[in-house]
Amino acid sequence: VELSFVRDDISNYLQKNDGEYFDQIVLDPPKLAPSISGLAKASRKYHSLNRDAIKCINPETGGLFMTCTCSAAMTQKDGGNYFLQVVQQASLSAKRQITLLRVNNAAPCHTQ
User: Fold this and answer.
1) Contact 17/40 with Cβ under 8 angstroms?
2) Are 67 and 87 in contact (CB under 8 A)?
3) Which SUPFAM superfamilies match (predicted)?
């Protein structure tokens, strides 16, 4: 089993990616929408990050993509579906099909 871990600014890393594909990606950016007023800007950023990360999943064999948000504004809008809609739109922009396997919420000790 070959593992590689990358610790970098994800926007920079994805922009300089030269066609390298991965079997698994965990996308866990910092809080991008600290309040509802930052939601539009954060939505665009989440869309582009998810789109670019989805493009890095191996198109021939598929893979596992886990994406996260710790922005309550993203997870509370539209009955909790807003973030899922952003990810779905990102997959369409990436021209990739995704299947939702699971949705988790923050641990009770995580302050919002």
Assistant:
1) no
2) yes
3) S-adenosyl-L-methionine-dependent methyltransferases (SSF53335)
Count of beta carbons in the 10 Å neighbourhood of residue 92 = 13
Say what the pTM is.
Answer: 0.88
In a domain, 49, yes or no: yes
What was the pLDDT predicted at 111?
61
Q: What is the domain range of residue 39?
A: 23-93
In a domain, 13, yes or no: no
Mean pLDDT (whole number) for 79-101: 95
- Split at pLDDT 50, 70, 90, the class of 14 is confident
Q: Does some domain include residue 14?
A: no
Q: How many domains does the chain have?
A: 1
Which residues, 6 or more positions from 45, have their beta carbon under 8 angstroms from its beta carbon? Answer: 29, 32
- Is residue 53 one of the residues assigned to a domain? yes
> For residues 65 and 9, which has the higher predicted lDDT (pLDDT)?
65
pLDDT above 60 for 112: no
CA–CA separation, 66 and 77 (whole Å): 20
